[in-house]
UniProtKB/TrEMBL annotation:
The chain crosses the membrane at residues 20-43, 87-104, 196-213. Residues 19-338 form the ABC transmembrane type-1 domain. This is ATP-binding cassette, subfamily B, MsbA. Keywords: ATP-binding, Membrane, Nucleotide-binding, Transmembrane, Transmembrane helix, Transport. GO terms for molecular function: ABC-type oligopeptide transporter activity; ATP binding; ATP hydrolysis activity. CDD domains: ABC_6TM_MsbA_like. Coiled coil: none annotated. The keyword Aminoacyl-tRNA synthetase does not apply. PROSITE patterns: ABC_TM1F, ABC_TRANSPORTER_1, ABC_TRANSPORTER_2.
């Protein structure tokens, strides 16, 4: 219940529905007990017929000990008042009373379920929203260690499990206990001796059910973890389908998926079979007690004469009426245990600390005026440093290019300046202000980003571009496409900028996707542009056209260009050559070519004029 209590805070906005549900459940429990008691006068009319005792004077209440006789006499008096010794009319009256009480019982049940629906679905909505918000707030480093499929499973199936369990716990703490309470109250009024057996039955039943359910949470954990596993395999399969087919690896991934679903099958069977044992076990225990009640109560009716037949039949109905909520409680306890396991997994995300937070005194920076500086920056993802004592200054309007072999730390610079990761040593400053003292939103508003992998979404070209500027006009979109050399191919589509580009831009070529990404950065029109191998996916012709457009775009901007194709950074104001995380050379293109160092070797390895 520890984790489940934390989930209950999501119910606060819907507490009025919880209160209305509790009220309706209270009426349900009350009418459930009264509907059985109302059968007594009907059975008297049926079994005793003309010999039934007729009460002609209103009865006098003589205390709780005589409550049963008072209730029977009062009903008999009321029936006699209206029926005037007509047995058939008396029968109709008592049957009508029973029907009315059962109707009120069921309408109360419907009202209770009606209100709980808003509560359950509201909690489901808010919980998913909170999870998604937390998912996009957590730093990139969090997902380098987590499976995407497991996160998806927590937001979908685990939250759904909590929703079902949420209904169960409200029934557990309100409706079922009240039903048992009112029913036992009615049973005590009818016969306190027989009711002792019920008090013996409930704790015994609860003890046996608890023995069955001890390992349920552990088994539920395994089911949910395995579900996250096969969803991860599915997500990876869809993302890497080209490679899987290209290497004829379908059988490898099918075996992995099949093994995971087999584990899910085995764990689910164990979990559900143990859960399914609760209902028959509690019912068998209940019937056993009913059998004892039949024997003992039958003696009271047939031998001792201390209980009349109609009262005993109604009492047996009440005793059986205890079984249904008792079974409901045992089932709800199982659901709560399952829900608690799901809540633990959900809360693991919600309670994960975001290591990259805005400081309380962080400032909002709206403009870039002088320079971007790196001062003795060192960084490591795990144990090995990927960046060591990196220092550089980029003046406003200038372009700095980073070159070097893979793993030399080039892309790490882009991750650090945007605060996707936080540096451990050194400082990065904008206009003399440490970026850790600037709010993340205002920091990233100053920057445009084009990555090596064209990250596009399954939507129209227009909506993909408007991620950078939601209020952009169609004219601004067209202008950005022209600068990125993308307008011609976009205009050739039947729907133009309203064309859907498919999942991850799958309907576009690699070069087209990259040009849409560049157009998106152009549309944002930031003072600082970060190009992380932005032209690597372009063909030679497109590269030359886009490179010219980028040069025009970067004239009034500070630019950090991470280059794989060295032809794209010839005109950079400063070229920094990185090797194993350190700057080994720096200068302009011609200077570095003359020095005949690492840069010249890299250039010579690439064929260009």
């Amino acid at each position: 219940m520890t984790y489940f209590k934390k989930i209950l805070r999501f119910a606060k906005p819907y507490k009025k529905y919880a209160i209305l549900n509790i009220i309706a459940n209270a009426f349900y429990a009350l009418f459930s007990a009264l509907s059985f008691i109302a059968l007594i006068p009907m059975l008297d009319v049926l079994f005793k017929g003309k010999d039934a005792e007729i009460v002609t004077e209103p009865p006098v209440y003589k205390g709780i000990g005589k409550a049963k006789d008072y209730f029977k006499d009062y009903l008999s008096f009321q029936v006699n008042e209206y029926a005037q010794d007509d047995a058939s009319l008396a029968l109709i009256l008592v049957i009508s009373l029973v029907i009315i009480l059962f109707f009120l019982k069921n309408i109360s049940n419907y009202i209770a379920m009606y209100f709980i629906t808003f509560l359950r679905n509201g909690v489901l909505k808010d919980l998913r929203n909170a999870l998604y918000k937390k998912t996009i707030e957590l730093p990139l480093s969090h997902y380098s260690e987590k499976r995407k499929g497991d996160t998806i499973a927590r937001i979908t199936s685990d939250v759904l499990e909590i929703q079902h369990s949420f209904l169960s716990i409200l029934e557990l703490i309100v409706r079922e206990p009240l039903t048992i309470l009112f029913t036992i109250g009615a049973m005590l009024v009818l016969s306190w001796e027989l009711t002792i057996f019920v008090f013996i039955f409930i704790p015994i039943s609860g003890f046996i059910i608890s023995l069955i359910g001890k390992s349920l949470k552990k088994k539920s954990d395994k089911v949910q973890e395995e579900q996250g596993q096969f969803l991860s395999i599915l997500e990876e399969t869809l993302g890497g389908l080209k490679i899987i087919k290209g290497f004829n690896a379908e059988s490898i991934f099918y075996k992995k998926f099949k093994a995971s679903t087999q584990n899910f099958y085995d764990f689910s069977n164990k979990l559900l079979n143990r859960q399914n044992l609760a209902s028959p076990a509690s019912e068998f225990l209940g019937i056993s007690v009913i059998a004892v009640l039949l024997w003992y109560g039958g003696r009271m009716v047939l031998i001792d004469g201390t209980l009349d037949g109609s009262t005993f039949i109604v009492y047996m109905g009440l005793a059986y009426n205890v079984l249904t909520p008792a079974k409901g409680i045992s089932k709800a306890l199982y659901n709560v245990k399952k829900g608690n396991a799901a809540a633990e997994r959900v809360l693991e995300i919600l309670e994960t600390d975001n290591t990259i937070q805005d400081k309380e005194d962080a400032v909002t920076k709206d403009a870039f005026t002088s320079e971007l500086t790196f001062e003795q920056v060192s960084f490591r993802y795990e144990k090995e440093y990927v960046l060591k004592n990196f220092s550089a200054t980029v003046k406003k309007g200038k372009t700095i290019a980073l070159v070097g072999q893979s793993g030399s730390g080039k892309s790490t610079i882009a991750n650090l300046v945007t605060r996707f990761y936080d540096i451990e040593e050194g400082e990065i400053k904008i206009d003399g202000v440490n970026i850790k003292q600037i709010t993340q939103n205002s920091l990233r508003d100053l920057m445009g980003l084009v990555t090596q992998d064209s990250i596009l979404f399954n939507d129209t070209i227009k909506e993909n571009l408007k991620i950078a500027k939601p209020d952009a006009s169609d004219e601004e979109l067209v202008e950005a496409l022209k600068i990125a050399n993308a307008h011609d191919f976009v205009n050739a589509f039947p729907k133009g900028i309203d064309s859907n580009i498919g999942d991850s831009g799958g309907k576009l070529s690699g070069g087209q996707k990259q040009r849409i990404s560049i157009a998106r950065a152009v549309l944002k029109n930031p003072p600082i542009m970060i190009l992380d191998e932005a032209t690597s996916a372009l063909d030679t012709e497109s590269e030359q056209l886009v490179q010219k457009a980028l040069e025009n775009m970067m004239q009034n901007r500070t630019s950090i260009v991470i280059a794989h194709r060295l032809s794209t950074i010839r005109n950079a104001d400063t070229i920094l050559v990185l090797h194993q995380g350190e700057i080994v050379e720096q200068g302009k293109h011609d200077e570095l070519m003359t020095s005949k160092g690492i840069y010249k070797k890299l250039v010579d390895m690439q064929s260009f004029e």
